Amino acid sequence: MIVQNLVNKKSDPLPEDLDFRLDLIDGDTFIETDSLEEKVKLLLLKDLFRLNWNIEKSKEKFIVKPPKIYTKQIIKQSMSISRQEILTKNKKWIDNHLDLAKENLAYGEDVLKSKILPRIEVCTSPKQHAIFRIFRYYWSSPYSEYVGRRIRMLVRDDGIDSSPIIGIMAIGSSIIHIPDRDKWIGWNKQERTNNIINIMDAYVLGALPPYNYLLGGKLLSYILTSNEVRSIYKKKYENKQTIIRKRKASDLVCIFTTSLYGRSSQYNRLTFNKKLLYKPIGKTKGYGTLHITNNTFSAMCELVKEHGVEIKNRFGHGPNWRMRVIREAADILGFDADILLNHSFKRGIYAIPLAENFRSVLIEQKEKPIYYNLPLNQLIEYWKKRWLNMRKNNKKAIQNVLEYYPQSFDVSSD
């Protein structure tokens, strides 16, 4: 297969009738072919075509060119396809747990009467994990399981008798290498390898209706920075060792999170005691698997298996299993895996330092962390004065809250 910037020089030419088959990459037409390799190629082209890549035939080769920029609309469209695949695959489980979700949501009129008293509830029981999971399906970004250290949390409102869910949040093991993050911290590869254990990524952080109409997302963002979340982390990992390198993981000094569309309205301007809590520090390089649909990925798994390659999907067996499968499939097809995985959805990166000397801890690890004092109750009161009171003057927002009732909740309407 000879495709500009996508495959290497050793690739085989496309089948002669592929130009006839190119109509299959447009729309939802089912791709049927006797060759598994050809099927994967066509599915990949279909995924790229949906992302507005140009596909042209030039004499003996096809040229595939990415767009110069991805608009917000294209990114949303790509996520919508992956998300719908996941919702369809998990439909039975979702249908069986929608009532559980509705039982844990608030009526809008009750929220407006509430003093809003957030309480963090760590997920430990099957029911708590089920509540977290059903609500995670709500947002437009596709649901994915997280491998590694992780803590899932529900945030409830004790200002209402039933203590409904305000939102959910989760932190997990940080991605090994993010150039802009690593440059901002200032560590080298060896220091990162030794000390990455002391940072975590916030991979879920969002408010649910009707609290989302009252800037509940900003409330969750404040709560994440609190002393209480740090204590939850320490309690879980104190005296614990990591699987691979046997490192202690009890000192959390910095949290990182990303925003899909660059700058984030949820994280911007979040201050406390004149300190900016979420610091924009750069962007990701745009590498990942978000643009590869599950249908294409399943075909890749078949292809890899057909060639006798086993790629284990367990924590401790190397980074991102999905990415390793795609790389192996790309090698089999003669694709340039780096370009294939470079979807160019560059996320904005935000750093949340929890300790004054976080850099010294992460680079030298000779000092004990000197933590900022961020009490949960004070962060909540600050959110109310700075954001909630102002939001209550927004007639449209208040109308949305008043009209909300839990029975209307549906994961297909984010």
Give a written overview of the molecule.
This protein has two domains: 18-68 and 287-341, no CATH class; 73-285 and 348-408, no CATH class. Helix content is 39%, strand content 15%. It has 16 helices and eleven strands. The protein has helices at 18-21, 36-50, 72-89, 91-103, 108-113, 126-136, 179-185, 189-195, 216-224, 227-237, 294-306, 321-333, 337-341, 358-363, 376-391, 395-402, and strands at 54-58, 61-65, 118-122, 150-157, 165-173, 199-207, 254-259, 271-272, 275-276, 279-283, 348-353.
Key words describing this protein structure:
disordered N terminus, 2 domains, alpha+beta, seven-stranded mixed sheet
Largest sheet: 7 strands, mixed
In terms of per-residue confidence, which ranges show pLDDT below 50 for 5 or more consecutive residues?
Answer: 1-20
The H-and-E topology, N to C, reads as HHEEHHHEHEEHHEHHEEEEHHHEHHH
Portion in helices: 25-40%
Total tally of structural domains = 2
Q: Given the C-alpha coordinates, what overall shape results?
A: globular
- Measured between the Cα atoms of the first and last residue, the distance is 40 Å
- Tell me the total number of β-strands: 11
Summed up, the helix count is 16
Largest sheet: spatial strand order = 3-4-5-6-7-11-10
Mean pLDDT: 85
The whole-angstrom Rg is: 23 Å
State the secondary-structure class.
alpha+beta
